[in-house]
Amino acid sequence: MTAAYKILFTVTLRHDYYTNKACNDFTIKPTPDCIQLLNQYHLIFRQAGNKIIILTPAENDKPSIEISPGIFFRFYLFCENVYFTHFTNWDQDDYSSKKFYATNQYNNFSESNRYLTTPLSVYDDKVTYHQGNLVINAQKEVSECLQENPAGAKSKPLSDKNFWKQFIDNKTQYCTTDSLVDFTQNLLPFVLIQGAKIKVEAFDNLEEDFKKTIFDHIADNLSETVKLFSSLPAGRYKLTVNANEKIIYYDPDTFAKKSWGIIEIHHQDDLSKEMQILDGDELPTDKDDETKLTPRNFIIHFRNRSVLWKYNLRLMKDDYSISDSSANKIAFEKKESAFISKDPIPLSEEPIKTFVLKKDTTALIDVLKNPVFYKLNTFEKPDPADAQKKKMIKYLCSEMYLTI
């Protein structure tokens, strides 16, 4: 039978800011070692908008060239949108020492979807939460923190709508900065200590932790240490030097430093079945129809950023107000010559058409436009956990000037 190309796996980038959820803000490129693997197994790499596709020559629903267990495919992400972090629930200032890291080793399978980011944490009243933090409840439904929420006795439960916005039935495993990893292009400064006890461990899928020891020795011969670390392949490791542990991603390639993030897709038998790219040595098929191929689709899903919305007026009058005709009834407060939303509102490509500026009961502006994401400032509000109202909390704020 003549071999035909079939999809081996795909990776899809999604974003709640966009109406169609398609995140086209990244260019994705195979790393040099990944290019070698693609050539070795006659695989084809394609990027189509927000999706990358890996194709394999296949016969009888099997790759024509058997793909060896233990290999993994690496890709660099390059962010092409300078405003990406403005409208994304994502805080990352330093791209040289920290990278976004996505992998199927996180074993994040939820609601039949395969995510490449760390699972969201369950709400815990022993943790301090900040505006924008995402958690899940026992049903895995997502909630977003609206206000500073301290740990301990003053912690507010998810049912408190002043502090939490619950997304009922939304079980999306959004990206958080828990998926950031320390990055370096040179491990030697960490380990060139005469007599240091050095241990390097790789991730063990069965243990779901860094338990796979690569080497463990005392650096009594620094030239040998240099040799060992110079030959270490790019990847994520747990490095322990004199009992000081550090999880770090090492990659000496020039493009790695320029990248925004790194994706790894591992082909290993010890991964959970749902996160493996093959079903044994065969391409996955539909459970109800074995003649239908269902290649693994791995997802990276970003949440849009919530900020205070501020509408500035040249002259504020007592009979001016902003009303919301939606079921959510978002409230606005007067502050000098502006209206500011009481709670943060998600920035969105799709316009909200329910905000009306009124003079008494007469509409002055029928539909207030969404403030733009590239004009972000800060606004201070009293800390809701401070009974004395002396402590101020700084929030991000998107502004728009109204002409009436």
Task: Map the helices and strands.
Blueprint: E1 4-15, E2 26-30, H1 32-40, E3 44-48, E4 51-59, E5 62-63, E6 72-79, H2 84-87, E7 98-103, E8 108-110, E9 113-115, E10 134-136, E11 142-145, E12 164-167, E13 180-184, H3 188-191, E14 197-204, E15 209-218, H4 222-230, E16 235-241, E17 244-250, H5 254-258, E18 261-266, E19 296-302, E20 306-313, E21 320-324, E22 332-335, E23 338-341, E24 345-346, E25 355-359, E26 362-365, E27 376-382, E28 392-402
Parallel strand pairs: 1-19, 7-18, 9-19, 13-17, 20-28
Antiparallel strand pairs: 1-4, 2-6, 3-4, 4-5, 6-18, 7-13, 8-9, 10-11, 11-12, 14-15, 14-16, 16-17, 20-23, 20-24, 21-25, 22-23, 25-26, 27-28
Key features of this structure:
404 residues; mainly beta; 3 domains; 7-stranded mixed β-sheet; 5 helices; 28 strands; 8% helix
Describe the structure.
The protein is mainly beta. The protein folds into 3 domains: 4-117 and 254-302; 186-250, no CATH class; 307-402. The protein contains 5 helices and 28 strands. A 9-stranded mixed sheet has the order 2-6-18-7-13-17-16-14-15. The chain is globular. The N and C termini lie far apart (72 Å).
